[in-house]
Amino acid sequence: MTQTKRAFTVDSKTIIPGITAGIVVGIIELTIAISLATLVFTGELAPFVSRGIGLFLFGATIMSITITALSSLPGAAISPQDGPSALVAVGAAGVASALTGVANPETLYATTVVGIVLSSLATGLIFFLIGQFKLGNLVRYIPYPVIGGFLAGTGWLITRGSLEGMLGHGLSLAALPSLFTAESLFNWLPGAAFAIAVLLVLRKFNHFLVWPGIVLGGIGLFYGLVFARGMTLDEARAAGMFMEPFASGGLWRPFLPSHLADVNWAALAGALDSLAIIPLVSLIGFLLNASALELVAKRDIDLNHELRVAGLSNLLAGLGGSPAGYHLLGATALSYRMGAQTRIVSLMVAAVTALVLFAGGSFISLLPTSFLNGMLLMLGLSFLVDWLYDARPKLPLADYALVWVILFVIGSIGFLEGVIAGVAISILLFVFKYAQVNVVRDSLNGRNYHSKVERAPVQRELLAQHGEGIHIFRLQGFIFFGTSNGILSRVREILEDQTNREKFIVLDFHRVHSLDSSAVSSFVRMRQLADLHDIYLVLTQVSSLNRRQMEQGGFMGDKHVQFFPNLDYGVEWCENMLLMKYEASTQFIATGLKAQLRRTFPHRDLVDNLFRRLERVEAEANVPLMRRGDPPDAMYFVESGRLNIQLETPDGDIVRLRSIRGGTVIGEVGMYLNQTRTADVIAQQKSVLYRLTTEGLQRMEAEDPQTAAALHEWVARMLAERLADNNYTIEALLD
User: Phi/psi zone of residue 364: left (φ > 0), alpha (ψ -120 to 50 degrees), beta?
Assistant: First the structure.
């Protein structure tokens, strides 16, 4: 692990909040360890509860030391967690049931602890490997409002748990009237008032001495309330108002290799169904907590690094008998709320848990439970305020409503169910929203979008008259059942339009990522319409994967379905089909170049003068006429054949810039600008051309200025027409 770590700072702005937060979080982790150990070591295992507390405290100590040294998140807290511990408790109950009647009670303890060790080692190994192979970032696919709902649900559970801790019983509608008795009010109202006051203070002030004042003032306040009632400390402790004292002496009873002799492996095998899923539950819990901590810390966390750190801490703690654990969301958030983003926090947590582990913790009995519950209540309320109040103007209504839905599911059913419900609803919302996105990026036709083929004027006129029959749809994104039907509807509208009998539907897939089976079904229906109405479907730049998917769904090329490598070639094919229908040949103009020029030259009587200065040239197929970088020594009038202006990319691909047919000119721009050739010109088929050299043009300008002026006017008009065509295309794309 090469993660850069933030160095310790020695100024009071770091030390004082760090020590204060570390002590508070350490005490919280003590209560967590006690409660979880009591959960596991109960029933037949109850005689071993002190050892169990020692195992949990050992885990909290080792994990805190590891995270202090290696974590990329200063101030983070880590401890054995409730999810894995609950599964351990189920496994322990199974072991106890299988060993009923066994004479040696150490067998039950040893078998349970070995199950804990194996599950923790497996969890640590899986965490470490997932982080090592950089798979932790998969959690970033969880939608933002789902994380918000998770945090709101966490806030509610913390709020409810802290209130129940102050009341001494659970919250329910039946118990609601009892909350307002004098006894109950004394139990929960001071803690609730303290939590609300702290929350309001923190929203107004951010000084580093605020939290020490809150801690000392809060403890003093609760002592004052006890004495105001005339109660002694013993009476208050008997009433549950202070922490129970630990037994004197240390709690650490290490599990040694010699204890393996007491393990009943058959009973352990019977509990594997509960223990085996601990790594999965731990992984889900860690990733959810880590994502939520990014929002709390207001910065990105290196999830893969933290997975490796958590994995290593589980491996080390597991060897000592600790259950699996990972980053604590609530405790870490509390330290950040206290302004303690420093490694001093986790170091102090390790010191507090180690002190109790090895020396006992009678001093813990001096802490008012209402103070600790009030701190937790403040944390829970802060989560609720963040996501139910502060987030309202920041989130769209649907996302904000989703936070409430997740909160309700978590509060009424459970965490995992709430997250699953949130993800499912997010997917449905995404599908609905994406279906509203227009998958047709541009809608064009053959009048405002042409292929890169340079055609004779007579052909351009025909395409201008009939080009509206070529309907071009440039598609984008992911085509699925929510968007493919929109394309089909557009095609149906075109077929119902009787104003133009020529219909070519061009679908460009250049920006289409992928499509699903329902989209293929829509294309199959388009093909049926094409057969019925005798129209052509032209699909361009379809990826091999998408085409294979189409063919598997029954959509294949035939008379009415054509595939082309890009939009340019597809539109050219449609233009050629139109021109052939109206007997405008795409191969050559039979009347010859002189007759062609007489249709468009400014002064027809000067065409003969021009021809006397031209040199007839025949270009064989696949032979270069010009190369990029050649000098601009001539321009060529094309009588027949076909030439391509093209570039070769660094990858070796050939990109067609323009295709030149009979009745046009090539090389004029370079000659007029006196610039070297910017692309290659290759004869695609045998072509007949007439060359006018630079010297020939200069002689014409000197000896026959009237013909030269007519030529310049003809070239200028041709370039203007090209520019106008480009402008029409740009305007169509901008609409």
Answer: alpha
Question: What pLDDT is attached to residue 8?
Answer: 43
Query: Is 256 strand, coil or helix?
Result: coil
Q: Are strands 536-540 and 634-648 parallel, antiparallel or unpaired?
A: unpaired
Collapsing DSSP states into helix, strand and coil, what is residue 65?
helix
Q: How many CB atoms lie within 10 A of CB 367?
A: 18
Contact 483, 435 (CB under 8 A): yes
Which residue in the block uniquely carries the two structure tokens 């020490």?
212
If you write DSSP's letter for every residue of 165-234 in order, what string do you get?
A: HHHTS---STTTGGGGSHHHHHHHHHHHHHHHHHHHHHHH---TTHHHHHHHHHHHHHHHHHHHTT--HH
Domains of the chain: residue spans and CATH: 12-429 (no CATH), 440-581 (3.30.750.24), 592-734 (2.60.120.10)
User: How many other C-beta atoms are found inside a 10 Å radius of the C-beta of residue 447?
Assistant: 18
Q: Is the pLDDT of residue 356 over 60?
A: yes
Report the half-sphere exposure of 447 (CA within 13 A, side-chain side).
Answer: 7
Round the CA-based radius of gyration of the chain to a whole number and report it: 40
Model confidence over 173-194: pLDDT tens digits?
777 777 788 777 777 888 888 8
How many angstroms separate the CA atoms of 711 and 494, rounded?
Answer: 43
Q: Cα(25)–Cα(22) distance, rounded to whole angstroms?
A: 5
Instruction: Give the whole-angstrom CA distance, residue 315 versus residue 311.
Output: 6
pLDDT of residue 61: 96
Give me the numbers of helices (H) and strands (E) for the chain, helices first please.
27, 14
Q: What is the DSSP letter of 650?
A: T
The answer to whether the CB of 588 falls within 8 A of the CB of 641 is yes
CB 471 within 8 A of CB 438: no
First to last CA, the chain: 54
Residue 578 tokens, joined: 């139109």
Sign, CA dihedral 395-396-402-408, equals positive
Residue with tokens 């070796």: 652
> Exposed, middle or buried: residue 325 (CB in 10 Å: 0-12, 13-18, 19+)?
buried
pLDDT for the residue numbered 543: 92
Q: Which phi-psi region, left, alpha or beta, contains residue 592 (left: φ > 0; alpha: ψ -120 to 50)?
A: left
Tell if the pTM clears 0.85, that is, is over it.
no
Tokens of 478: 């992911």
